[in-house]
Write a structure and sequence with these properties.
The structure holds two protein chains of two kinds.
Chain A: H1 2-32, H2 39-56, H3 65-85, H4 93-113, E1 121-122, E2 132-135, E3 138-141, H5 142-164, H6 166-176, H7 178-183, H8 188-214, E4 216-217, H9 223-236, H10 241-261, H11 270-284
Antiparallel strand pairs in A: 1-4, 2-3
Helix pairs in contact in A: 1-5, 1-6, 1-8, 1-9, 1-10, 2-3, 2-4, 2-8, 3-8, 5-6, 5-8, 6-8, 9-10, 10-11
Chain B: H1 2-9, H2 13-36, H3 39-65, H4 73-87, H5 90-96, H6 111-133, H7 138-158, H8 160-163, H9 178-197, H10 199-209, H11 211-216, H12 221-247, H13 257-270, H14 275-296, H15 311-327, H16 338-364
Helix pairs in contact in B: 2-9, 3-9, 3-10, 3-12, 3-13, 3-14, 4-6, 4-7, 4-12, 6-12, 9-10, 10-12, 13-14, 13-15
Chain lengths: 301, 365
């Protein structure tokens, strides 16, 4: 029983992390059609900001690093939008994707060459994040519990925002038809800004958890989780928010399952198996689990 | 024969002339380097030709269909590993991959059949993956190409018995030189140009402008994307074989994001919509990275390794991509091939000259 609960929690926390990232990708994509390949670099920037704070300000408690990391993530997302993505806002999707690819490379290499961070740098996180608690005789890692809980709370808050506020309504409408939203007197920049703030916030939350798990930053840390998030988003149906969450959780479950069933000898192939499984799902349902069934040619440059 | 080609593939005289001009340009670069350059620069040129083959391969699919492809290097890796393992001497295999599957360590092939098998396997893999990939549209397609890259990379890294895993596979005999690389790159330039100008290329480019309109006009976009993807897999795995024969040592890292990024930057900078753009981009990025390397003060080149794109060089390449996407998304060359551009400019000049003669006095009076 202990083992089952542990694995369920494993899947929920990993899946939650992917869901947070996939949601950020989906919300930006649904509003402005941008595939944000630089999403992973938001995590990297949050990590390095925490590192810089730890080195230069040497705060008395590692607590402080968490909100600063999240704030840095939001700032990074908004800066990306302002500097790089706004000039290509009306360009075809491929242009935006390649721009984001370029941004990602710029940020990575900035940290490699300017910070000189070729090896991982240690960053402390509060001790309690690494602790275990015992509920009904079952040992549970605080971090995992927190990850699952925060993901759930973030989802509910996002839902409330999208359903209950004007800007949320505008964002949902923009996913359908941005021009009509603008005709209703909503500023395009505001809607896009909101999308990036949310995606930055979600990435910041994920970044804090990733930092707590890794305990170190390096310039390439953002790539792998965001690649999984992309796959999760495609699995769920790119641009669908429900799809992003379900896709993220499904990917987490698939990963944990493969981790359990694959013999040690081929455990290294886990990611390949996960991706192949996703590929198989997409053969049957090319539009993803929750994707709009669209005609060939929709949403394409 | 020309008329038959025109009928069958929609290829006119200018496509052939333009293709040969482009090929001549590539060969000219090779000849100049061979005549004038030192050993280190010849190595740079060799790597340039391999990269050029890869960029041309990428152009065939991404340039024509106008959908981002981030996994093309997959086939380069497959071609390189297949040919490299087949051709490696028995002694090397005995120490390197003693437990190789399929009895691969019990024989060694001549380098030409090894290359052919490498290219065939790469192409077949491209066709099979293409069957699945072309079911996807737009962004999902791009992400799926990326997933393909990761899957194959995972296999390269984990199939230790076959590839030595993350450790480099060494001891592949050096079988190519500047002349052969330059000729193959030139041939690939012709292939890319002819495909672009062919009926298929034209229809695919139309779908790149507007998928719906193209579909409505009877263009079978999925099938054409599959054709382009497979042809591009052929060129890319050929480039991979060339890489293995040039460098002699391959590792999974050679066929991952650094290579994807470098070739992508070359294509974007030059202009992905023409074969000329691929050539121009490859030349300029190679010159630029060599300049950066010189500025960074790093040793000019170690062996003939694929240039490592790190730090300052990578930073500036990224900036170049972002700036080009914002300011000149069609790249330096844009829509036209170089010969088409030259022809147009020549005609305009003539027209202007003629107009100047005819109407000049009237306007001035």
């Amino acid at each position: 029983m202990d083992y089952v609960i542990q694995q369920v929690l494993n899947a929920a926390s990993i899946g939650g992390e992917y869901a947070l990232l996939a949601l950020g990708l989906a919300i930006v994509f649904s509003v402005m059609g941008l595939v944000n390949f630089a999403h992973g670099e938001i995590i990297t920037i949050a990590g390095f900001t925490m590192y810089a704070l730890f080195i230069f300000a040497s705060p008395t408690s590692a607590w402080w690093l968490l909100p600063i990391g999240i704030a840095a993530a939001i700032a990074a997302a908004v800066t990306f939008e302002r500097v790089a993505f706004r000039p290509v806002r009306n360009a075809p999707a491929t242009t935006g994707l390649l721009t984001a690819f370029g941004v990602s490379i710029v940020v990575k290499n900035f940290f490699v060459s300017v910070v000189g961070a070729t090896r991982p740098r240690a960053v402390p996180t509060p001790d309690w994040l690494g602790s275990q608690i015992v509920i009904g005789g079952v040992h549970i890692q605080t971090l995992q519990l927190l990850e699952a809980a925060v993901t759930a709370i973030a989802l509910i808050a996002l839902l409330a925002l999208l359903r209950g506020t004007n800007i949320g309504l505008a964002m949902r409408a923009a996913a359908k038809d941005f021009n009509t939203v603008r005709l209703m007197g909503i500023r395009a920049n505001q809607v896009v800004l909101a999308a990036f703030v949310i995606s930055g916030l979600l990435a910041g939350l994920a970044a804090v958890f990733i930092m707590a798990r890794r305990g170190a930053v390096d310039p390439f840390m953002g790539f792998s989780p965001v690649l999984k998030a992309f796959v999760a988003a495609v699995l769920g149906g790119f641009g669908s928010l429900t799809g992003a969450v379900v896709g993220g959780l499904a990917l987490g479950v698939a990963e944990v399952l493969f981790q359990i069933v694959l013999p040690d000898k081929i455990a290294g192939y886990r990611d390949a198996f996960v991706f192949l499984l996703v590929g198989a799902v997409l053969i049957l349902r090319p539009q993803g689990l929750f994707g709009r069934k669209y005609q060939f040619g929709d949403k394409e440059g | 024969m020309m008329a038959a080609l025109q009928m069958r593939f929609g290829l006119g005289r200018q496509s052939f002339v333009g293709g040969f001009i482009l090929a001549a340009l590539v060969i000219l670069i090779g000849l100049i380097v061979m005549a004038a350059a030192e050993k280190a620069q010849i190595r740079v040129a060799n790597v340039f030709f391999v990269n050029l083959i890869l960029v041309l391969g990428l152009q065939i699919t991404m340039g024509n269909s106008n959908v981002a492809n981030l996994g093309h290097i997959t086939f380069t890796g497959v071609g390189a590993y297949v040919a490299g393992i087949l051709v490696a001497p028995l002694a090397i295999k005995a120490t390197g991959i003693p437990n190789a599957p399929f009895g691969l360590n019990t024989f060694e092939l001549h380098f030409i059949p090894a290359a052919m098998i490498g290219v065939v396997i790469g192409t077949v893999l491209a066709f099979l993956t293409g069957l699945v990939l072309t079911r996807q549209t737009g962004i999902a397609y791009s992400i799926a190409t990326l997933a393909l890259l990761v899957i194959v990379h995972t296999v390269f890294t984990n199939w230790v018995d076959l590839t030595r895993g993350p450790i480099a596979f060494y001891g592949i005999p050096f079988k190519v030189n500047t002349v052969s690389l330059m000729l193959i790159a030139a041939a690939c330039a012709i292939v890319a140009r002819l495909f672009r100008d062919s009926r298929w290329g034209l229809q695919l480019r139309a779908s790149g402008e507007d998928v719906l309109a193209a579909e409505a006009s009877g263009v079978s976009v999925k099938r054409l994307r599959l054709v382009a993807w497979t042809l591009s897999g052929f060129v890319l795995s050929l480039g991979g074989v060339m890489y293995a024969y040039l460098v002699g040592t391959i590792s999974p890292k050679s066929f991952y994001f650094d290579a994807v990024f470098l070739t992508l930057a070359m294509l974007i900078l030059g202009g992905m919509r023409s074969a000329s753009g691929a050539v121009v981009g490859a030349v300029i990025v190679t010159l630029g990275t060599e300049l950066m390397r010189w500025l960074e003060g790093a040793p000019v080149i170690f062996g003939a390794k694929m240039p490592q794109i790190f730090g300052l060089t990578g930073f500036f390449l990224g900036v170049v991509i972002v700036l080009f996407m914002a300011l000149r998304p069609d790249g330096l060359v844009g829509d036209e091939e170089l010969d088409e551009m030259a022809k147009r400019l020549w005609r305009q000049r003539k027209a202007r000259a003629a107009a100047g003669e005819d109407t000049g006095p009237e306007t001035s009076s």
